[in-house]
Amino acid sequence: MNIRRLRPTAALVGAAALGLTTLTACSTNAEDGRTDGKLDVVASFYPMQFLAQRIGGTAVHVSSLTKPGVEPHDLEISPRQTADLSKAGLVVYLKGLQPSVDRAISQAEPRQVADAASYTSLEDHGTEVEGDHGHGGEGAAGHEGEEAHEGHDHSGDAAADPHIWLDPVRYTQVAKGVGKALEKADPDHAATYKRNTTALVKELSTLDQDFRSGLKGRSSDTFITTHAAFGYLAERYGLRQEAISGLDPESEPSPARVKGLHTIAKKDKVNTVFFETLVSDRTAKTLAGDLHLRTDVLDPIEGIGSKSRGDDYIQVMRANLKALRKALGAK
Prior knowledge:
Largest sheet: 6 strands, mixed
Order of helices and strands: HHEEEHEHEHEHHEHEHEHEH
Helix content: 40-55%
Number of helices: 11
Strand content: 5-15%
């Protein structure tokens, strides 16, 4: 946690006048989840951190359990991080993405939690990725007018695709939910959270419209990527995702899947195989080499690092749009 150090002179005077326990509470009050008067928010990984920072603004301290450059699926929670969860004023996470985070939250029992999965709908993408059908993880447009889903319980959705943030519309629903959770956890700054939520929702709406217009006039709907992270994005904009592996970015494709991708690439005139920044690009480049295709980055934005094509979610999503336009031949 971010605890401000008091200067020695101030510490001596404060301790004499108020007692050491009271002095410590002036900086960090474990009873109300605040540090220096600001709400302590712990985010599970970058997409949740982005929402907390943009909506919380100057009224919050935000920390992330997943450090930059770490693949979030592989995260293991330390005892200290579990303790931080119990002290936080709000924990923002996505249930089902990181099992170690789910377990730590259950153990820590934070005072307030915002589960992104409860603010929108989750679906199953990629269940046929290892099969012979050749369309595992594909998406088709069909939710253009979808309204926000409140209070869904996805505790039993073991196969549900968690990558909801890659669909700007679903991510907007999550942003609204996080905004309300911040208002509940910190009513004194409710006006700030409402204002910042409105501004972010407007920005995400513009991003959605840019994807809709930017992908018009394309010559192909199909794209091949390392793992099935883009099912919601494909569904939103009428594209077809063909993943080399499944929802697990570290899994290896079967020989049948590789053979199927060869057929799909030729049939659908695919010219690009996408890889991502936080996992190995070896399989993607091998497939591209066999098919004489180019490679490019399509970032699932599970973290921002030195290789990211942008400094935040919005910038990287726009880089993804540019890469998709080129790969799909959009005019």
